[in-house]
Structures are given as structure tokens and as C-alpha cells.
Design brief:
30% of the residues lie in helices and 22% in strands. The protein is of the alpha/beta class. It has a single domain, classed as NagB/RpiA/CoA transferase-like (Rossmann fold), CATH 3.40.50. An eight-stranded mixed beta sheet has the order 6-3-2-1-7-10-11-12. Strands 4-5 form a two-stranded antiparallel sheet. Strand 2 and strand 3 form a beta hairpin.
């Protein structure tokens, strides 16, 4: 099989996993999302002190992703630097610490993002929480297909002082197989309501 055929097969496999997981996640009731989110963020916080580290990359949860509101609220009360993704031209993305958390825009995907604020370099973060559709057996992230995080973080993935890259997911989002491609981002850890996985 040629390299082009392998890429096509990998793309098809990832598309099928993405479809299956998103259907299952979208079917969750709001009460279930909130309950599991509390459990998952509490486990991750106990392990990594997310509520108190100096600089944390977060995201505005959408489509039944693990909800980060409680964590974000705790951090903002302490005036800790908390950044959120904002997409730009040519599929670029930057991490912004908003001046006003209540002044948000919706991007073309319908996801909230800061309307203004300070750009924080990825390397200035201690931890970045990355929205994740799935995590494969080797710790590689299955995203939404836009490649924004792959482009943002690809250049720092081999640096010694890179931030920890963390996925917060539901247990059914773990994928038992290896489905990664060369450009995919590898997470350092992933947390669900039942598991903590570390990837070397």
C-alpha cells in the first residue's frame, strides 16, 4: 500500500471514530455532562492543581465537552492567567487571556472566544487543556479535523520546556487502537471519570 493510500485509510478511520464518539457525546443529557464534568475536573485538579498554577490554557466548552466553567471561575477570582483559543486567518489560532470574560464573540464554528485580550505564547503556559474528541492508545489526540491545535503546538512538541498538554474527556472517548498521523498532537495525560492515563 502506498503512502497516499495509507493516509486515505487513516483519514477514513479517524472520520469514523470521530462520528461515533461525537454522536455518543451529543446524546448526553445536560445533567450528565455537568455531573461528569465535576468529577473529571476534580480528578485533574487534584493531580495537577489546575485551580492554582500561574498560567493555564483553557477553552470554552461546547457540544457537550467536559465543562470547565467552575475551574475557570475559581481561577479568575484569583486573577490567575487563563487563556482561551481564538482562531484567525489561514487556519491560524492564538491563545488569548481576555480582558473581560463576559465580552466574547462566536467564531465561524459557533464556539465562544475572547473579543480582546493579551496573546499568551504557548510556551508561557504551564498546562494547556485541549478540547478533544478522542485519545488513542498512544496518547495521540483525535480532534475535530481543523488542525488548529496541531499547527499551534506542532513546533513546540519536542522542546524541553513545553507545557503539559492535557485532555479532559469522558471514558468512552478513549480509543483502544492507534490511529495517529504524523502531524497529530500527543497528549501528556488524559483524564476521564474513571481513568488517568499518562503517555511517555
Amino acid at each position: 500500500m502506498s503512502s497516499g493510500e495509507l493516509v486515505l485509510v487513516s483519514t477514513i478511520v479517524k472520520t469514523e471514530y470521530r462520528k461515533f464518539i461525537l454522536q455518543k457525546r451529543n446524546a448526553l443529557e445536560v445533567s450528565k455532562v455537568l455531573n461528569l464534568s465535576k468529577i473529571i475536573t476534580r480528578i485533574a485538579d487534584l493531580e495537577l492543581s489546575l485551580h492554582s498554577i500561574k498560567t493555564l490554557g483553557c477553552y470554552f466548552s461546547s457540544r457537550n465537552e467536559v465543562d470547565l466553567k467552575n475551574l475557570v471561575t475559581k481561577r479568575l477570582k484569583k486573577n490567575l492567567i487563563t487563556s482561551f483559543p481564538r482562531i484567525g486567518h489561514n487556519h491560524s489560532m492564538e491563545l488569548i487571556a481576555p480582558k473581560n470574560i463576559h465580552k466574547l464573540n462566536k467564531n465561524k464554528y459557533g464556539i465562544s472566544e475572547p473579543s480582546d485580550g493579551n496573546t499568551i505564547c504557548p510556551l508561557e503556559h504551564e498546562i494547556i487543556l485541549i478540547p478533544t474528541v478522542g485519545v488513542d492508545s498512544n496518547g495521540y489526540r483525535l480532534g475535530y479535523g481543523g488542525g488548529y491545535y496541531d499547527r499551534l503546538l506542532g513546533s513546540i512538541s519536542q522542546t524541553n520546556n513545553k507545557p503539559l498538554l492535557i485532555g479532559l474527556i469522558y471514558d468512552f472517548q478513549f480509543i483502544d487502537n492507534s490511529i495517529s498521523e504524523e502531524h497529530d498532537i500527543k497528549l501528556d495525560m488524559a483524564f476521564s471519570e474513571q481513568q488517568i492515563k499518562r503517555f511517555s
